[in-house]
């Protein structure tokens, strides 16, 4: 149960909370592969489908723990490695990554995002908190955010409590005054809960909750969040009135 009287700011996940991430990544990988066919043909031939480059990226992730929180670095390094192995100039990796990264920002927002972010940001400051590499300004929603915190810049990612504490610092608030909203039960909800934040689980796919504590609030779409928050306030006021009576 939320205590909305304590909430003075919001931290908000991006991927799979505001847009579906894998369709976005898939399109970006295809655009990258199309570019490789024109500018690095040996690499395109050695990795004939985007999935092959994705598998190489996963291998680089296993081999480079120093890049575990830097998805851009992992992607760039995997492209460089693919080019070097195929006999293309690995110096092209930066340009190739820029092609991928530009398309990665072309997200398809869930239908409820603009309406809800406009309503929330009119009442409370919001910061983005993400393990990914989306840019709120390049995705077209920067006007709703006071700031953004990325795992690659901070050095640790969710669910580490330190990144939630840093998000609260970015808002200028104690962690107990921040409501974290996200889709991942562990990375978002458990991480925020253990850091001392209140939580909203955005469960668009209707998953079963499998952890040993309950989120402060569960919604199946952001569109239902404002009404759910109002209902939570009304319920809290009713319980207080009954206790006083």
Automatic annotation (TrEMBL):
SUPFAM superfamilies: HAD-like. Its cofactor is Mg(2+). Keywords: Hydrolase, Magnesium. InterPro entries: HAD-like_hydrolase, HAD-like_sf, HAD-SF_hydro_IA, HAD_sf. The keyword Magnesium applies. Pfam families: Hydrolase. One of its GO terms (biological process) is riboflavin biosynthetic process. GO terms for molecular function: hydrolase activity. The keyword Hydrolase applies. NCBIfam families: HAD-SF-IA-v1 (TIGR01549), HAD-SF-IA-v3 (TIGR01509). This is HAD-IA family hydrolase. The lineage of its organism: Bacteria, Pseudomonadati, Pseudomonadota, Betaproteobacteria, Burkholderiales.
């Amino acid at each position: 149960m939320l205590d909305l009287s304590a909430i003075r700011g919001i931290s908000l996940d991006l991927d799979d909370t505001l847009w579906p991430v894998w369709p976005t990544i898939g399109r970006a990988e295809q655009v990258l592969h199309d570019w490789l066919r024109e500018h690095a043909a040996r690499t395109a031939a050695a990795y004939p489908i985007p999935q092959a480059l994705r598998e190489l990226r996963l291998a680089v992730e296993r081999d480079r723990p120093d890049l575990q929180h830097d998805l851009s670095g992992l992607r760039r390094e995997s492209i460089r490695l693919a080019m070097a192995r195929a006999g293309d100039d690995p110096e092209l990796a930066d340009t190739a990554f820029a092609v991928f990264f530009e398309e990665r920002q072309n997200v398809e927002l869930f239908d409820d995002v603009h309406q809800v972010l406009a309503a929330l940001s009119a009442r409370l400051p919001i910061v983005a908190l993400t393990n990914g590499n989306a840019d709120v300004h390049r995705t077209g929603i920067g006007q709703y955010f006071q700031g953004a915190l990325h795992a690659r810049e901070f050095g640790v990612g969710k669910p580490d409590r330190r990144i939630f504490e840093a998000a609260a610092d970015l808002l200028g608030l104690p962690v107990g005054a921040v409501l974290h909203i996200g889709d991942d039960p562990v990375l978002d909800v458990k991480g925020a809960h253990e850091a001392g934040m209140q939580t909203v689980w955005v469960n668009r796919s209707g998953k079963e909750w499998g952890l040993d504590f309950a989120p402060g609030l569960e919604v199946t779409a952001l569109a239902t969040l404002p009404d759910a928050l109002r209902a939570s306030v009304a319920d809290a006021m009713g319980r207080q009135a009954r206790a006083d009576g």
